[in-house]
Design brief:
With 358 residues, this protein is of the alpha/beta class. It folds into two domains: 2-166 and 343-357, 3-Layer(aba) Sandwich (Rossmann fold); 176-339, 3-Layer(aba) Sandwich (Rossmann fold), CATH 3.40.50.2000. It contains 13 helices and 13 strands. The strands form two sheets. Strands 3-2-1-4-5-6-7 form a seven-stranded parallel sheet, sandwiched between helices. A six-stranded parallel sheet has the order 10-9-8-11-12-13, with helices on both faces. Helix 10 (278-285) crosses helix 12 (324-339). The longest helix has 17 residues, at 118-134.
């Protein structure tokens, strides 16, 4: 089977969770599957798409223009022979007679419209509507997401839950020295709490920081809270920094992130809504206690809190960072959950789904 896989996400400055999904899935696919990548006009410098080692079909259009063309049904796949086109996000090209499979990770913009810019909501609505009309299959990570995709207009027979759709074994070995340098540069000397995610309203950082401020006097020591992730929109980063003990690290390389996980007392991941929640299980794989909203990825192995209740989050932080018995329980449960989530298993489920429509 020859699959054309959309790799446009990797051209972005911050590829985010979908970039991790794409890279990890590619690395786990069997060698007998032929993969060609599709992306926009290559950059002048090093090309992260070409570096993946697969043939690349490039458009003459830049990324922003190409994404707008696709959602209007333009700039489709022509002149090549493929058995299937796979889009790891709603940014999917018209595929003509070739079956198209689209990954829908969540429909959070419908659930939380105020957490997205108006332009982003409009684009997502159009892209999902187009995928629902034209894709042979929409793959989703959970039954709840499947229900929401169907409610948005997708035919139920073409929505397929992949369990697991993701793994959590993608981070490289921890760069302990790099992580130590990051926290030292923030003025942190000793243990810390950690939060990982894009700095945007959906990640609920304002409540998390408020909860941390309440929890800090109750911790065995006033350990700082380190925020790691790329800048997004709608979050006043300087306001976060003004809270005592909060340190904003920004983006870090994956090996450094693995080192930061390993050194954390606990990881807090309390988004308002999430279709899956990859950082939570990344932390579990690193044997770190996790405080989280009820997200599908953790399957109950985290210390679950109400993301709308600041006191609930604060109580969770105190327990996960300071209660040794509770910490041990969370680490054990987290490791058992992480062991179930391998990219090899996820890749197997993807290939089975692709073959069913190719």
């Amino acid at each position: 089977m020859h699959v054309l896989m959309v790799a446009e996400q990797l051209r972005r400055t911050a590829p985010g969770g979908i970039g991790t999904y794409l890279r990890s899935l590619l690395a786990a696919l069997d060698g007998d599957l032929q993969v060609t990548l599709l992306a926009s006009r290559p950059p002048a410098g090093p090309d992260p798409v070409a570096a993946l080692g697969h043939p690349v079909v490039t458009s003459p259009l830049p990324g922003v223009v190409l994404g707008r063309a696709w959602v209007r049904g333009l700039a489709g796949v022509t002149g090549h022979r493929f058995d299937l086109v796979f889009a790891p996000s709603l940014s999917a090209p018209p595929s003509g007679a070739v079956p198209l499979v689209v990954a829908v990770h969540d429909v959070a913009w419908r659930r939380l419209p105020d957490a997205y810019p108006a332009r982003g909501r409009r684009w997502h609505d159009r892209a999902l509507a187009r995928a629902a009309r034209t894709a042979a299959m929409l793959v989703v990570p959970s039954p709840a997401t499947a229900d929401e995709v169907v409610a948005a207009g997708a035919p139920p027979a073409r929505v397929q839950v992949l369990d697991p759709m993701y793994g959590c074994d993608h981070l490289p070995p921890a760069d302990a020295a790099g992580a130590a340098a990051v926290v030292a540069g923030l003025g942190v000397d000793g243990p810390y709490l950690l939060a990982v995610g894009t700095l945007e309203p959906r990640k609920n950082l304002t409540r998390l920081v408020e909860a941390y401020a309440r929890a800090r006097p109750l911790l065995p020591d006033p350990w700082p809270l380190v925020l790691v992730g790329p800048p997004g929109w709608g979050v006043e980063v300087d306001a976060l920094r003004r809270v005592d003990g909060v340190k904003v690290a920004g983006m870090v390389p994956d090996a450094v992130l693995a080192g930061l996980y390993a050194g954390a007392r606990c990881v807090a991941y309390v988004p308002l809504f999430e279709g899956y929640g990859l950082p939570a299980v990344e932390a579990m794989a690193a044997a770190v206690p996790v405080v989280a909203s009820p997200v599908p990825s953790t399957a109950g192995a985290a210390l679950e809190v109400d993301p709308l209740d600041v006191d609930s989050i604060a109580t969770g932080l105190v327990a996960a960072a300071g209660d040794d018995r509770r910490r041990a329980e969370l680490v054990t449960g987290g490791l058992l959950r992480a062991a179930e989530l391998t990219w090899k298993a996820a890749a197997t489920h993807h290939v089975e789904a692709w073959k069913s429509v190719a």
